[in-house]
Design goal:
The chain is mainly alpha-helical.
Length: about 850
């Protein structure tokens, strides 16, 4: 009877039969040599997970593995029929994973399908994107597809290309023979085999790897090869697959959905390795998102950053990443040196570049948010096209946007930061940045000209794509004594910043420049910049600051005389606009003086805007006929000059006038025309009012459902733009519409929110509007008080009461007269009219609590 032996003894026999040292086998299964020694000696039982790895590596069939795992754990005797302890052929040398593999399920399946279809597939991608780990994961899934196994040949440590065939032969345990080359040895061994060979990290041995792979594939019909490299082998039959970065959350995001994004999940899991209780919270989620976005979802970079939570908070890591790549150091001691820090990985890539490629990388780092071929040619020294193509092939530059007429390129942010450091070291920085400023000043001036002409949409798309570069150019201008050029660039973006809602970004950039000594000279550039900063301050509701900025611009305009006439006219228009809410008489004076100056300067979009603003003042005072005249002249000027985008403003304003006049068909036509222009220009800022007016018309025409849809669209955009006035206005309008449909609970909630926000911004007109809406859904005696209080508040505001609120007042009053005795209605109305605004709000809050 044959003596039964222990699992450790059996394991040692298997290892020796495979001609593997204890250290070599330990490396393959992912454990320390001492651990394997103790298991073989019988002094240590492997865990269930590690036993599974050992059994899998020794090729035990799936159906028999549970019995062998139980045997390894010392829970049962050897499986029946295995007493002779046969040697099992090792079918792979893929290393066991020590950490979880996060995400990329879709990409794995795509590569598996690619390998099924082609005999040679190359995984490309930038350094740190995880090509090796990805290839191993794919190899693990394909083990069952190849009877002779999946084999990993790691080439990163190999520096001598002539040793490639010998290194591969050693992988398969092939011994050197007289008069036969290592390549022929490999061919003889693999000729009849069904196997997958992974050639890992080939970028530094491309000239050797390409013919080597081609030779093996031509002579070994059952062999397939999976390559990882920062650039492809470029041989016949090669299928390429670029490994993408991990998915990143968009902004804004929801905390509860963050773990759905691979980059965030990876950060959290790796952070837990060094701080077991780390988790995403509402306190650290913004910093973690910032880290992952800054690192563009590169796994190596995220893992290195996550390891720092043992000594730094996520907020500190995010801050340091913005200053230096050095924080991404200190990876695993057993990893290749170039995987221990992100900088080392980039040094490796940098060393493989030619001098011309390095120079282009340095110079391209001046761009923020990507660049076009035209921009690169304007700023960089060399033959850009061929070098760009080479760097794209090497996975250092991404082609991230293609249109019919253009291609846009970009760096991963960490690569750009590295190349920017190289630019600073080279001494080329000032020259390259000056070219960058000149180029983007040209872009801005072209936009300024074409924003009021037929090329509008093309220029909007151009500025959308280059906005980060334009801001970078403005900032650099301030730092390097080019403030006047910076002011000119910023002023040229006036209409873009205004209509895109970039009020804080634009104003902050301009005010930094305006405060510099070299920007203090009285020039049209300074006057225009002051006007724009003042206009943006008006949009922010900061009227005190706006008037100070505009007053200085007015002084400069007077000093410049004839040369400053157009600028002065524009200043007066803005001053008039800023006064409309406080002093209508002075506002009218400033606006009419502005129109005179701008007429003298010649018909232009500035005159058209001045007429438009003058129309707003007339409309706000209830003079609809005069408003229509101003809007019509404004639209006529813009149509003659071909200014499509600006023409949407008076077009929409005319729609409002016809709505107020009750001409709904004409009003809708104008409003829809304006909406089409805004949509084509991607100008969301101007659309909430258009949708609100369309909603009012639909409501008056009895289409409650359509009205609610228009109001909800208006509210959604207003919230996206964070425009409190528009939000409050639309909450009121939507509340009235919902009340008309019979949903009084929702109507009450909407009107309550609108009233609270109107109170917050102290807008008496909107408070009156909300009180009017609430009166329509209150008990009769409360409703009578509230309706009268609303009418009094409207009178105090001094503004024209729009049709929706006038009609709602009349509708509610008619209902109340039907339900109340005449003397009661008169009594309640008198009491309501005597209320202050605060008393009326208190009454509304009290009655809403009662319902």
């Amino acid at each position: 009877m044959q003596e039964e032996i222990s699992f450790g003894t059996w394991l040692r026999k298997q290892r020796r039969a495979l001609d593997l040292s204890r250290q070599a086998f330990a490396d393959q299964v992912g454990c320390a040599e001492v651990t394997l020694r103790r298991i073989e000696a019988g002094s240590l039982k492997p865990s269930k997970e590690f036993a599974s790895i050992l059994i899998e590596k020794l090729g035990i069939p799936d159906s028999e593995r549970p019995q062998w795992i139980s045997f390894a754990r010392g829970l049962t005797n050897p499986p029946s029929g295995q007493k002779a302890f046969p040697t099992v052929a090792l079918r792979t040398n893929l290393p066991a994973s020590l950490t979880s593999f996060v995400g990329r399920e879709k990409e794995q399946q795509e590569v598996i399908q690619l390998i099924a279809k082609h005999r040679l597939a190359t995984l490309t991608g930038s350094g740190g994107v995880g090509k090796t780990r990805f290839a191993i994961k794919v190899g693990e899934q394909l083990l069952g597809n190849y009877s002779d196994g999946v084999w990993l040949l790691e080439l990163a440590p190999l520096n001598d290309p002539t040793l490639l065939p010998q290194t591969a032969a050693t992988l398969f345990g092939l011994r050197t023979q007289p008069s036969i080359s290592y390549t022929d040895l490999l061919i003889n061994h693999l000729r009849t085999k069904s196997a997958l060979l992974i050639l890992d990290n080939c970028e530094h041995l491309l000239d050797a790897c390409a013919p080597f792979a081609e030779t093996l594939l031509k002579n070994c019909a059952g062999l397939k090869i999976l390559v990882t490299s920062r650039e492809p082998l470029e041989i016949v039959g090669e299928a390429r697959y670029r490994i993408p970065s991990l998915r990143l959350p968009d902004l804004p995001y929801r905390l509860e959905a963050l773990r759905e994004f691979e980059s965030i999940k990876l950060f959290e899991e790796r952070a837990q390795l060094v701080q077991f209780d780390f988790s995403l919270t509402s306190e650290n989620d913004a910093s973690v998102v910032q880290i992952c976005r800054h690192l563009d979802g590169i796994p190596l970079a995220i893992e290195l950053a996550a390891a720092k939570v043992s000594v730094l908070s996520p907020a500190q890591i995010a801050k340091q990443l913005g200053e230096s790549l050095n924080v991404l150091a200190g990876g695993s001691r057993t990893a290749l040196p170039r995987h221990q820090t992100l900088r080392a990985s980039m040094n490796w890539s940098w060393s493989l570049l030619t001098d011309a490629e390095q120079r282009l990388m340095r110079q391209l780092s001046v761009f923020v948010g990507g660049w076009t071929l035209e921009a690169a040619r304007s700023i960089c020294d060399d033959d850009v096209l061929d070098l760009l193509d080479s760097l794209v092939t090497k996975s250092l530059i991404a082609v991230n946007e293609r249109t019919e007429n253009n291609v846009r390129y970009s760096f991963h942010e960490a690569i750009r930061q590295y190349a920017r450091e190289k630019l600073m070291e080279s001494g080329e920085s000032e020259v390259v940045r000056e070219r960058h400023l000149e180029y983007f000043l040209t872009i801005a001036l072209r936009f300024e000209h074409d924003a009021h002409g037929p090329q509008l949409l093309d220029e909007i798309m151009s500025v959308n794509a280059e906005h980060d570069n334009l801001l970078e150019a403005i900032n650099w201008a301030g730092e390097y004594g080019q403030a006047q050029s910076g002011l000119r660039l910023g002023s040229a973006l006036h209409y873009y910043w205004l209509c895109r809602g970039y009020w804080s970004v634009g104003r902050d950039s301009l005010e930094r420049l305006l405060s510099l000594p070299e920007a203090s000279e009285y020039t049209t550039a300074r006057a225009d910049a002051l006007n724009l900063a003042g206009d943006l301050a008006i949009q922010q509701g900061d009227l005190k600051a706006a008037r100070a900025l505009l007053e200085e611009s007015r002084i400069i305009g007077l000093e410049l005389g004839q040369a400053g006439k157009s600028c002065l006219g524009w200043t007066l228009m803005l001053q008039g606009q800023s006064l409309m809410g406080q002093d209508k008489t002075m506002a009218q004076y400033e606006l009419e003086h502005s129109i005179v100056l701008l007429r003298e300067a010649g018909p232009s979009w500035r005159l058209a805007i001045a007429l438009l603003v003058r129309g707003w003042l007339a409309g706000g005072q209830g003079d609809l006929e005069q408003a229509r005249e101003f809007y019509s002249e404004s639209l006529d000027i813009l149509r003659k000059t071909g200014d499509i985008w600006t023409s949407a403003d008076p077009t929409g304003a005319l729609g409002w006038v016809f709505y107020c006049l009750g001409e709904y068909g004409t009003a809708s036509a104008y409003l829809q025309q304006a909406l089409a222009i805004y949509r084509a220009a991607e100008d969301k800022f101007s659309t909430p009012g258009i949708f609100a007016n369309l909603g009012c018309i639909a409501l008056f025409q009895g289409n409650h459902r359509q009205a609610i849809e228009y109001f909800e669209e208006s509210l959604s955009i207003a919230r996206e733009l964070m425009s409190k006035k528009h939000i409050a206005n639309t909450l009121c309008d939507l509340g009235i519409a919902v009340g008309h449909s019979g949903d009084y609970g929702r109507a009450m909630a909407l009107l309550r929110d609108g009233l609270e926000l109107s109170q917050e911004i102290r807008n008496i007109y909107l408070i009156a509007a909300c009180l009017t809406g609430l009166a329509g859904i209150q008990q009769p005696h409360h409703a009578a008080h509230m309706l009268a209080a609303a009418q009094a508040a409207f009178e105090r505001s001094g503004q024209f009461i729009e049709p929706l609120y006038r009609v709602e007042q009349a509708r509610t009053e008619n209902k109340l007269r039907e339900r109340l005795e005449a003397q009661d209605f008169a009594k309640f109305s008198e009491e309501g009219q005597a209320m202050t605004v605060d008393q009326a709000i208190a009454l509304a809050e009290e009655t809403m609590q009662e319902i």
